[in-house]
Design goal:
Helix content of chain A: over 70%
Largest sheet of chain B: none
Distance between the termini of chain A: 50 Å
Oligomer: heterodimer
Number of helices of chain A: 14
Strand content of chain B: under 5%
Structural class of chain A: mainly alpha
Order of helices and strands of chain A: HHHHHHHHHHHHHH
Structural class of chain B: mainly alpha
Strand content of chain A: under 5%
Shape of chain B: globular
Chain lengths: ~325, ~300
Amino acid sequence: MAIKLANALLAIVGGIGGAMLLFWILNKLSESLKGKWEDRVKPWAFAGPAILAIGVYLIYPAIVTIQYSFANEDSSAYVGLRNYTDLLSSADFRQVLINNLLWIIIVPAATVALGLGVAVLADRLRPRGEKSVKTFIFLPMAISMVGAATIWRSVYEYQPEGSPQTGLLNAIFGLFNKGPFSWYQLDTLHLNSLFLMIILIWTQVGYSMVLLSSAIKAVPEDTIEAGRIDGAGERMIFFRIVVPQIWGTVITVFITVLIGVMKVFDVVYVTTNGAFNTDVVGRRFYNELFTDGNNGYAAAIVVLLMIAIVPILIYQVRHFRAEEANR
Amino acid sequence: MSTTIQPGVGTPEKQPVLRQSKPGSGAGSATWPVRVVLVALCLLWMIPVLGLLINSFRTRDAQFSSGWWSAIANPLDFTKWTLDNYVRVIGTEDAGVNMGQAFVNSFVVTVPATVIPILIAAFAAYAFTFMDWRGRDIVFIIIVGLLVVPNQVALVPLLKLYGSLGINGTFLAVWLAHLGFGMPLAVYILRNYMAGLPRAVIESAKIDGASHFTTFWRLIMPMSTPALASFAIFQFLWVWNDLLVALLFLGRGDNTIATVALQGLQGQTGQGRELIPSAGFVTIIVPLIVFLSLQRYFIRGMTSGAVKG
């Protein structure tokens, strides 16, 4: 234990000291250059280490991943498109895609809607009340998905019929002489997936609420006043005046949650480990990579995920450019 | 040099955080149904946490013979309460894993993985903001694009590479991975913040003959404190709460961290099962404290439009 702490301390001191020294040396080196060359090299001395880190840990591995997706399970020989055809022709994997699609359809929309609802309602409270409501709703954001899944045991837990139910949901159903149900095994209509989604939504609504709330507060009062004078009702004001003005934020929240959902892994891994027809792409990827040791399938799954992300990536870059133009 | 800007106070962020309602914009106009709905929502949001908290202090018998809510109805029945779960989960391996050790490991992983990227990212952000160089815009656009790319894209080759280097299962492997994965967000947050700093200050420093290196240390770093804090909180929570990277590169040995240990406990059916709630609290307590005490910076980072893939 002491050795570990000493290690960590060494890493902090060494890491920071090393980084400082590195930049000092890089700076000195670039200053030793003459005239124009100094100005040309110095930016790379400053930005170089970060660019290198990104190159080594994201860009280069991404390229290798694409390469691996055309190779066999230990990446020793190319197999052409076999990984892709295997995956896409297996009914099992198609079901995984369908499950992920359900997550994509339900979670971002529900998160935005709930966050917007809380933001609008809490806006009418006095400041202190508003702040407490927001803190409660926001709190789960700090909790890991493993932690969240543990927390939700107190709601979803199932004990065999006849023994006392220790999960809240089964206890409530018990009052009406229904159940008990093993919620995570209930795959009619993908209900079990829905129960898992609720855990994710629970952690994300706070994020959505905070962003939308600050957008709502930035809506100019006179636009609302003008609507009122023209005789618009509350609902009309909300949908015709407020919503269009916060639309940009709605999209931002939606996309952020969407990305999280596309690669969702933790919550499924911790609760059902993909059993009972709840598997998703992120967990399947982990399974292929680590449990089955099949680099080819794992890489192909990631490439499919990347392809799905491309439209979001394009949107993100465009959005950034538009914002820069407004600076 | 202008004296109106003080280190750490120069906040170019447009909208103040958790802004209080403007007078006359409907603050305090909530009707009773609205209040009831909000209170119900807050309760709904906190009930699962309460359930876990209560169960973490109940004896094994109590946990499995009745629901956690029955402890609220009968709070003075001291035979059902115990601190034993925490003592055992932190001090022993009754649960199959020592959460105390995993907790320490979480710190060992998280603190360096949070602190080290900051300096590297800050230098880069400075170059992206205050220096003119060829390729600057295109490199930054790539970083912006990478924000939405899930880090799964890097894991297959990394696992193989780490395997051949023989550093799988070491802290170094995870530190470096989080350094790389956190870098786009760090550069993005810091650069956005620096771009909002008044250019006049930097120009006047230049006129005074200060080099970029001096300007960075003396002016920009102190002025960027809020953004540095925002990123530090993001990264801290992200690394502490991470499961995937730790599972792949640290595994379940002596170096295992709290989230991985807690995940391993979930399947527990026999002895040790009563320790799951307390292990859960041990795992989430640090992020909760960090989050509650530094909420302001966290929200500022969020509203600056940061997305992490």
